Amino acid sequence: MKIDGRDYRSVWVDADDHWSVHILDQTKLPWSLEVLRLTTRDAAAHAIRSMQTRGAPVIGAVAAYGLCLALREDASTEAMERDADLLNATRPTAINLRWALDRMLTRLRNTPASERVAVAYHEAALIADEDAAQNAAIGRHGLPLIEAAVRPGRRVNVLTHCNAGWLATVDWGTALSPIYTAFNAGIDLHVWVDETRPRNQGAALTAWELGKHGVPHTVVADNAGGHLMQHGEVDLVIVGADRVTRTGDAANKIGTYLKALAARDNNVPFWVAMPSTTIDWTVSDGVAEIPIEERSETEVTEMTGRMADGTIATMRVISAGSPAANPAFDVTPARLLTGLITERGRCPASAEGLLGLFPERR
To answer: pTM of the prediction?
Structure first.
């Protein structure tokens, strides 16, 4: 995707040294565009844990490259297994992280230690390229949903929650991929962007990347979605996911479940867009079985923003002494979803629906 006319991916290997890994520091957006150069396993792990890079697909790719960096220091089997475990522990909810590391280990365990670094970089590059291709395909399969909402004389209004754009993937995005595809095709559309407290990924990231691409959008408070649906201002909802069960339950940023309830009450289609790497085929009950990351209470008690004088400041926004809880995700049961959008097409949010697209999983 483009930033001010220049093509970017969210993770890439340095073109000059061919080994260090570059990412966009998402904690600095939208105030400044800063590129981080990762040179060690610990730097990659910190980037994932601190959400300098975030989004289920891209943290899988960054973890894969993090293992490459680790192998440059020690390519022994013992060290490789230990380093993969350390990277895997950085974020518990998104399944793509574990999937990418498992794929790397499967490829590397039978590779001689002397060849592991080269093989690892090749495999990590494949993971990144495949993610970009999968998300472009999600855009193509989601486009008909937006086309079907076109009415003479009015724009299509899409609501999304959190950031599931190209910043959260290697390229294109998941929930935003159909939106970019429709916009590029000339469809008159507009995006309602949930602010997505507590980290404001919608306001800070989704709005920023939509703006850079020229897509009309409006940031709204998280609790405005139901009101907009009641008044006919939302034609469909598209969100991403950090993990989808084999039965179609979807874990996504906290607040997604409430949007799905509002959509059901107002007969608004509610779609989850995700690559197949986000499906956890071992889990059937998302509410009971998906681990929900509990993050620092400071993400709730404090906010960072640009002051009137242009400086960036962090301030406390709740009363002194009040504790805060910060579950990072919730699970939307399959029964509330209109369907799923994957790189192989659309399907009902059900075991049979997913198996229809992925029959090799039967």
So the answer is: 0.93
